[in-house]
């Protein structure tokens, strides 16, 4: 049954990849959720492996409570972020610095945090346009707030049946029985949960193929080569069971909801 007109018809309905809603394309157009060329894109996307997210699931900002939204708006005001405007790297970095200073005026971003910010900016600007769009920025900030304020159990409750099923299938595809290795867990986080592109898991997959997807900002290009050296060498032996896998990836599963090509929360490392 179409979520907009609540009529069931046999003509093809667009399923949302996240929730259980389905839509007529005519209804989406009528409500202004898709416009002009958008329709062709939606048709195409909804029928690929990646799928299409409806307007509820596409907007991560809707996951925030009224109080959390108020807090975010206040931060934007104090940091002089203008809503609905795109942000350049300079805007983004200035905001990050100011946000870090809130509550503790002496605190500044460490070099490592600044490099992390550069990687995140690049991930939010997949087409290398030198700026990030407001909805992508808002999604990213909403995720950070969720990550900061909500206990993991509460985040787990946000997952839909489809998301759990897909995560479970990924876990089983990568794993050996009831556990998967730390490296495989990280790989899933970097590739699949970033924007679940169809990818056949293979036992010969090496973690070295999982490079940053789109590092293009000026600040990140110089630091890129150092990333690996800075990473502590983690023992690869830790095995991850299903509950841990889901808990550790929940924020990245949520981050993969929007249709935009941007990566809204880049995993560290
Ligand atoms: Zn309809
Ligand atoms: Zn949906």
Quick recap:
By secondary structure, the protein is mainly alpha-helical.
Instruction: Please count the helical segments.
Output: 12
**Strand runs, count:** 6
Instruction: Please trace the helix and strand order, writing H or E for each element.
Output: EEHHHHEHHEHHHEHHEH
Q: What's the N-to-C terminus distance?
A: 43 Å
CA radius of gyration is: 19 Å
Largest sheet: 2 strands, antiparallel
Percentage of residues in helical conformation: 40-55%
Main sheet: which strands, in order across? 1-2
Describe the global form: globular
Tally of domains: 3
What does this structure look like?
It is a single chain. Helix content is 50%, strand content 5%. It is mostly helical and 269 residues long. It folds into 3 domains: 14-58, no CATH class; 61-153, Recoverin, domain 1 (Orthogonal Bundle), CATH 1.10.238; 160-255, no CATH class. Helix 5 (89-101) crosses helix 6 (111-124) and helix 6 packs across helix 11 (218-230). The relative contact order is 0.14. Bound molecules: zinc ion (ZN) (2 copies). The site of one zinc ion has 8 residues, from helix 3. One zinc ion (ZN) binds at residues 16, 18-19, 21, 53-54, 56-57. It holds the Pfam family zf-RING_15.
């Amino acid at each position: 049954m179409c979520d907009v007109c609540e009529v069931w018809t046999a003509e093809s309905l667009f399923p949302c990849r996240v929730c259980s809603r389905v839509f007529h394309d005519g209804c989406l157009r009528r409500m202004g959720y898709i416009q002009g060329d958008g329709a062709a894109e939606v048709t195409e996307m909804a029928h690929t492996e990646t799928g299409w997210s409806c307007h509820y699931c596409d907007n991560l900002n809707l996951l925030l409570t009224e109080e959390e939204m108020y807090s975010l708006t206040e931060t934007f005001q104090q940091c002089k972020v203008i809503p609905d405007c795109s942000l350049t790297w300079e805007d983004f970095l200035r905001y990050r610095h100011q946000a870090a200073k809130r509550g503790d005026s002496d605190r500044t971003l460490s070099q490592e945090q600044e490099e992390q910010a550069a990687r995140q900016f690049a991930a939010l600007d997949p087409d290398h346009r030198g700026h990030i769009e407001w909805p992508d920025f808002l999604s990213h900030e909403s995720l950070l707030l969720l990550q900061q304020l909500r206990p993991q159990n509460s985040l787990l409750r946000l997952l839909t049946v489809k998301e759990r099923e897909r995560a479970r299938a990924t876990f089983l595809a990568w794993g050996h029985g009831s556990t998967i290795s730390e490296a495989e867990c990280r790989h899933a986080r970097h590739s699949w949960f970033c924007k679940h592109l169809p990818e056949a898991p293979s036992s010969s997959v090496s973690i070295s193929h999982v490079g940053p997807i789109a590092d293009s900002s000026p600040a990140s290009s110089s630091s890129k080569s150092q990333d690996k050296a800075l990473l502590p060498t983690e023992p690869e032996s830790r095995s991850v069971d299903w509950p841990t896998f889901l808990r550790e990836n929940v924020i990245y599963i949520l981050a993969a909801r929007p249709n935009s090509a941007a990566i809204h929360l880049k995993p560290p490392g």
